[in-house]
């Protein structure tokens, strides 16, 4: 963009008015709901490709490959109170049980009753190599977290839809390579490429931007329900497809087909188009939405009927908004007025010129996309100049915003507590998925149960939050999670009856609690920070989630191989510990979103 180029800026409140304009009164339009469901399915299918790691990264029971099991020493399992064959050792002398114990010489034999083949069993990533997969997954999570920063920037700059489609199909191609490449090194490379392109948040960003702000809470609930429904398909598929390569291949092909069909109908984000001055494209989309929803377009401020294709909708709107912004600018201090005198004069001249050409341009508005673009240039007045100076001011404002988070006494503790909540919730939520296959019982049934239990958790928040606020329900969900998971210590009481059902029961109670907690903090975090610091605060929380993703394989996969109860006790302790500082957070129920730091400082 040239330095002297001028661009009109529409506020988020004004964008909300356009979104409301194409929604039927007091309900969500058919078009918005259809596109939202398509995007939610695309988002869920992408996430599920990553969640399949609980299957292809599963470590089955194993022991050295020998002719006679007597060649393998037996070790005592403190969890089952029984002896079992050692996993990584055998006697050096086949006929002498008192001989030296050595590592397996001829490979391993795996229990294939639950899953025929995993990446662990194919490449023998066990014993002295068991840390390989955990590190590979941790590195890919770190890469994914870092790439999210760049992808989100590109989505803001070049458009949501373009970046979403590009990253989605790179991810699918990398996933297919992951399923067919022969060596673990090449598989690791494909996993890294998939992590770089992973941008599951963009489909949901487009989806949420379909709705005015008052409907986004409902959209979040629907999103969670669709995710649960699709996530339940994974254990069903894995029950029939028990080879990791075929499972990954199948799911990425299905996800690719869903994306190819879905993106055909998904438009660019209307919010992004309006925010970036793409008025001609926004007008085409507004008319399309209104036609599908059987709504007659009208001017949101002066009730001008614009349903006629010959009238330029944004000519009337932008003239109105420019007058309003010009009036606001007249109230600025004299130095700013003097500095912008030339710009305002040029804009006024442009208004006069545009009026003469408006009729001819509007007559051509319905003839095609190219004509609409020309009309946009003639009818839409530029308003605000963007220069290098303004960019540097924006960057400076971001750094000041972060300092403000730390310099305000109350806001500093709120930020640290929320970052801790995101860290613990991410570790426990993902960790429970990874350890469930190792619990007693059928792994496919266990995985189905650990997924479906999220449904009553989310539905409970719909009832509880409007009645009891945020703070105390959050504490109760965390304490329920902590007590449920910590009950795994009872498994040390060696009871065969308890061993059969106690592990999965404690995991289900913990998953219910952490799912409810996650739903609360997603809302609570947006209500605790002032408007000018909200994005910065959420970025801090996102960093906590990235750290959690790196820690998950070590806190779950590594510990569960030592003792099945150990990661659950750790997760339970973390949930209880993070519930304690929640007591100092202010309640936000029935309070308007804070605009300044001073408002939060006055909260009790």
| Counted beta strands | 8
Overall morphology = globular
- The average pLDDT score comes to 78
Question: Low-confidence spans: pLDDT under 50, at least 5 residues?
Answer: 1-8, 302-311, 334-400
Strand content: under 5%
**Structural category:** mainly alpha
Task: Name the strands of the widest sheet in spatial order.
Answer: 1-8
**Rg value:** 29 Å
The amount of helix comes to 55-70%
The end-to-end span amounts to 47 Å
How would a textbook summarize the main sheet?
A: 2 strands, antiparallel
Total number of helices? 26
Description:
With 604 residues, the protein is mainly alpha-helical. The chain has helices at 12-21, 30-51, 53-56, 119-123, 131-158, 160-180, 184-197, 201-208, 216-231, 233-240, 244-265, 270-275, 279-293, 313-329, 334-339, 341-363, 369-379, 388-407, 409-435, 443-452, 454-468, 471-486, 496-528, 534-560, 566-579, 597-601; strands spanning 6-7, 62-64, 74-77, 82-85, 89-91, 101-103, 108-110, 384-385. The strands form four sheets. It has a two-stranded antiparallel sheet with strand order 1-8. Strands 2-7 form a two-stranded antiparallel ribbon. The chain is globular, with a radius of gyration of 29 Å.
């Amino acid at each position: 963009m040239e330095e002297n180029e001028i661009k009109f800026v529409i506020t988020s409140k004004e964008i909300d008015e356009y979104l409301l304009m194409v929604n039927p009164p007091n309900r969500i339009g058919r078009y918005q709901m259809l596109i939202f469901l398509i995007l939610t399915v695309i988002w869920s299918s992408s996430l599920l490709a990553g969640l399949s790691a609980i299957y292809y990264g599963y470590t089955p029971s194993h022991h050295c490959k020998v002719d006679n099991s007597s060649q393998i020493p037996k070790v005592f399992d403190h969890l089952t109170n029984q002896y079992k064959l050692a996993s990584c050792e055998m006697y050096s002398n086949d006929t002498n049980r008192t001989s030296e114990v050595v590592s397996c010489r001829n490979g391993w034999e795996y229990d294939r009753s639950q899953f025929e083949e995993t990446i662990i069993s194919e490449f023998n990533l066990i014993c002295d190599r068991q840390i390989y997969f955990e590190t590979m997954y941790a590195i890919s999570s770190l890469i994914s977290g870092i790439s999210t920063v760049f992808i989100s920037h590109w989505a803001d700059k070049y458009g949501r839809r373009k970046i979403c489609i590009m990253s989605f199909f790179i991810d699918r191609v990398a996933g297919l390579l992951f399923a067919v490449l022969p060596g673990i090194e090449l598989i690791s490379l494909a996993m890294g490429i998939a992590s770089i392109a992973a941008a599951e948040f963009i489909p949901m960003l487009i989806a949420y931007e379909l709705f005015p702000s008052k409907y986004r809470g409902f959209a979040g609930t629907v999103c969670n329900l669709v995710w649960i429904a699709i996530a339940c398909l994974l254990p069903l598929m894995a029950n029939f497809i028990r080879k990791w390569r075929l499972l990954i291949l199948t799911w990425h092909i299905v996800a690719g087909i869903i994306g190819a069909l879905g993106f055909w109908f998904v438009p660019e984000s209307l919010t992004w188009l309006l925010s970036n001055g793409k008025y001609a494209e926004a007008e085409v989309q507004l008319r399309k939405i209104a036609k599908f929803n059987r709504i007659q377009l009208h001017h949101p401020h002066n009730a001008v009927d614009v349903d006629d294709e010959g009238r330029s909708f944004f000519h009337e709107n932008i003239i109105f908004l420019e007058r309003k912004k010009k009036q606001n600018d007249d109230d600025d201090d004299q130095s700013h007025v003097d500095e912008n005198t030339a710009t305002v004069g040029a804009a006024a001249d442009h208004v006069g010129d545009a009026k003469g050409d408006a009729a001819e341009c509007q007559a051509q508005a319905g003839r095609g996309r190219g004509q609409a673009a020309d009309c946009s240039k003639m009818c839409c007045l530029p308003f605000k100049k963007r220069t290098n100076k303004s960019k540097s001011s924006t960057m400076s404002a971001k750094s000041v915003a972060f300092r403000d988070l730390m310099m305000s006494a109350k806001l500093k503790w709120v930020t640290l507590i929320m970052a801790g909540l995101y860290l613990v919730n991410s570790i426990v939520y993902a960790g429970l998925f990874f350890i469930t296959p190792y619990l007693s019982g059928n792994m496919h049934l266990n995985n189905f149960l650990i997924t479906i239990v999220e449904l009553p958790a989310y539905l409970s928040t719909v009832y509880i939050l409007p009645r009891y606020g945020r703070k105390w329900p959050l504490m109760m969900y965390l304490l329920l999670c902590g007590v449920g998971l910590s009950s795994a210590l009872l498994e040390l009481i060696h009871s065969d009856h308890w061993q059969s059902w106690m592990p999965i029961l404690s995991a289900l109670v913990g998953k219910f609690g952490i799912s409810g907690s996650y739903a609360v903090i997603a809302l609570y975090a947006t209500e605790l920070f002032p408007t000018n610091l909200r994005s910065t605060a959420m970025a801090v929380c996102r960093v906590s989630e990235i750290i959690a993703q790196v820690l998950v394989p070590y806190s779950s996969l590594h510990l569960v191989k030592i003792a099945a109860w150990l990661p659950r006790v750790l997760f339970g302790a973390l949930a209880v510990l993070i519930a304690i500082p929640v007591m100092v957070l202010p309640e936000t129920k029935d309070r308007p979103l804070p605009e300044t730091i001073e408002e939060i400082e006055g909260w009790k």
